[in-house]
Amino acid sequence: MRVNVRVNGEQRQADDVWEGESLLFMLRERLGLPGSKNACEQGECGSCTVYLDNVPVCACLVAAGQAQDREVRTVEGLADGDALDPVQEAFVEAGAVQCGFCTPGLVVAAHDLLDRVPSPSDPEIREALAGNLCRCTGYEKILDAVRLAASRR
Amino acid sequence: MDFLRPETLAEALELKASRPDAVPIAGGTDVMVELNFDHRRPAALLDLTRIAELREWTDGLRVGSGVPYVRIIDELGSQLPGLAMAARTVGSPQIRNRGTVGGNLGAASPAGDTHPVLLASDAVIEVASVRGTRMIPAADFYLGVKRNALEPDELIVAVHLAPAKGPQQFSKVGTRNAMVIAVCSFAISLFPAENRVGAAVGSAAPTPRRAHEAEEFLASELDFSSPQPLLDSVKRRFGELVSEAASPIDDVRGSAAYRKHALAVMARRTLGWAWQELLSQKNGGGERTCA
């Protein structure tokens, strides 16, 4: 089937989409957006977190067809050209990136948190990031990055 | 595979009637896992996310089956505290943004987080087909492991739940706070005006189930009109009866013996919290005590 979807502000079209395929597969394999990572495919790890109509979701748990006529924003859509989003900047500065695989999902989840709660408490940060796993276990630096990004708002 | 995309409930019911093999999908948090792992290859997917009437609620309450957990937590928490508590324990923020009570009911997993609350609060499930509408009490909805009372042409439309008439509590055991399937869970609802208690267990039997004897015991022991501090013996006996209502198995998440033990503890504690809330309301104060 064909899916028309707005991705990172641009109207996109994907053809030959399998009806049972996920939004994540369509983004990565058909629309050339490999920023969202494919790991658990069951919503456990959060590495594929994207905005769907401004709400963070696991792209692996959205059927591609459900994104028809909707608005998707991926990690690729956060930066403004070469200028990183403040959340991305804070991840770099705080050393919140080790292997980097979980980073795109965490950046989107943190970005959403700071949009909703400009100065989150530590428990609020932990709760907001509870669905994102880092197998390098770099959580302390990730918390530092979110606090840093919040302090600059 | 076909991807069916109805815009209205009437259209969805027509499609489900002509394609009973179509699998409904809303939040996708269960269905997509099965597709991603090739555990299921349905002939068609019936996308319910475009149907506005499933994503609304009306006073009373009639909560559309497609209302995501996050909205139940943020917007219905004061009217449906028990359901909101259970919704808060579902998955992660990403999952709660998508997952729905309708999906919990459709999957009918014995471990579904909202089931004990629906049972303890006398919820009624509204299902519909082109043949008409049926109102199914939650107690009659769960038939077996991942089996519910839906006919092949029916869709879950809404859950009818009265705003809380008294304190409600929910408790769930897992290895961490987020992202866990319940080892076991428990919900309690007090109905002070009716001298009645609702109590139900989750993830501790082939289906979620009510703890009838425990409910009757409390109804006979508790004085709702002039509530006094609870006797330890009452809390303990209630816990035992809740535990006896379960018939758990040993599995990867926990042993049957552990589940029985944990249920007794959760029942005792949640009763303590709910009763304390009632005492505070009646007496205008009072401290929460540990069970």
UniProtKB/TrEMBL annotation, chain A:
GO molecular-function term, one example from the UniProt record: 2 iron, 2 sulfur cluster binding
Q: Which residues form the 2Fe-2S ferredoxin-type domain?
A: 1-78
Q: Does the keyword Iron apply?
A: yes
UniProt-listed InterPro entries = 2Fe-2S-bd, 2Fe-2S-bd_dom_sf, 2Fe-2S_ferredoxin-like_sf, 2Fe-2S_ferredoxin-type, 2Fe2S_fd_BS, Beta-grasp_dom_sf, Diverse_Oxidoreductases
Gene3D superfamilies, from UniProt?
3.10.20.30, [2Fe-2S]-binding domain
Q: Which UniProt keywords apply?
A: 2Fe-2S, Iron, Iron-sulfur, Metal-binding, Oxidoreductase
SUPFAM superfamilies named among the record's database cross-references: 2Fe-2S ferredoxin-like (SSF54292), CO dehydrogenase ISP C-domain like (SSF47741)
Q: What is this protein called?
A: Carbon-monoxide dehydrogenase small subunit
TrEMBL record, chain B:
Q: Where would I find the FAD-binding PCMH-type domain in this sequence?
A: 1-166
Question: What SUPFAM superfamilies does the database record attribute to this sequence?
Answer: CO dehydrogenase flavoprotein C-terminal domain-like, FAD-binding/transporter-associated domain-like
Keywords, sorted A to Z? FAD, Flavoprotein, Oxidoreductase
Q: Where are the transmembrane segments?
A: none
Query: Any signal peptide, and if so, which residues?
Result: none
Spell out the protein name for this chain: CO/xanthine dehydrogenase FAD-binding subunit
Originating species: Lentzea atacamensis
